[in-house]
Automatic annotation (TrEMBL):
Protein name (database record): ATP synthase subunit I
InterPro entries referenced in this protein's UniProt entry, alphabetically: ATP_synth_I
Top-level taxon of origin: Bacteria
Keyword entries, A-Z: Cell membrane, Membrane, Transmembrane, Transmembrane helix
Main localisation: membrane
Topology relative to the membrane: Multi-pass membrane protein
One family name in Pfam for this protein: ATP-synt_I
Bilayer-spanning residue ranges: 12-33, 39-59, 71-91, 97-116
Amino acid sequence: MNTNLQDEINYVTKGVLIFDLIVISLLFITSFFSKGMFLGLIFGSIIAILNFRLLAIAVKKTVTMPVSRAQIYYSSQYILRMTITGVVLLVSVKAPYLEILGVAIGLLGPKFVILAKKLLIDKLKRKEA
């Protein structure tokens, strides 16, 4: 895999772990911490990281394909990732030991990490330059 792409995947993975620690701390502070919330957060975060890695692999393969094949391949990968997310949410609704709110927060972890990077870190870099 391209080193820039691998670096970005590693950055987001580490960011999700930090995000999880922050969320767990906030859950402790607000007394909303429970075993179900913790397990849901961890489960959602693991699936989110795997989905992010699948996205990176799909993008890397897609850019080397002809346009007609790339569109079909990328669409099928998108449907696969959304199906995985749907199954995870369905499992979290059915499983008594998982809180769906925790799973949803975990699934949104990479989005929050990427937004935080764009809004906070890149803004600080612009001020220094």
